[in-house]
Amino acid sequence: MSFIVNNKLTIIGVIVGAICGYGYFYFIGCASGTCAITSKPMNSTLYGALMGGLLFNMFKKKKVKKR
Fold first, then answer.
1. What is the three-class DSSP state of 58?
2. Residue 67 confidence class, pLDDT cut points 50, 70, 90
3. CB within 8 A of 65, min separation 6: which ones?
4. Are the C-beta atoms of residues 49 and 30 closer than 8 Å to each other?
5. Element (H or E) spanning 6, and its range?
6. I need a labelling partner for 15 at 20 to 30 A (CA). Which of 26, 50, 56, 62 fits?
7. Is residue 11 over pLDDT 90?
8. Buried/exposed code over 31-52 (b: 16+ C-beta within 10 A; e: otherwise)
9. Residue 13: what pLDDT?
10. C-beta separation of 39 from 30 below 8 A
């Protein structure tokens, strides 16, 4: 449970990124099927989840240990 509490911003970013990645596949996609990321919904969803997690993780505050 503490893992979820400590990484809630990153988890939210993964969920938002996955939704956006699938949305990109659905609305824009790749007509020819030769695009590496957008040719399949699984690829674009996973790529979006990865990018969303990385983006939201940038805004996570670092904990400073006091001596």
1. coil
2. confident
3. none
4. no
5. helix 2-6
6. 62
7. yes
8. eeeeeeebbeeebbbbbbbebb
9. 96
10. yes
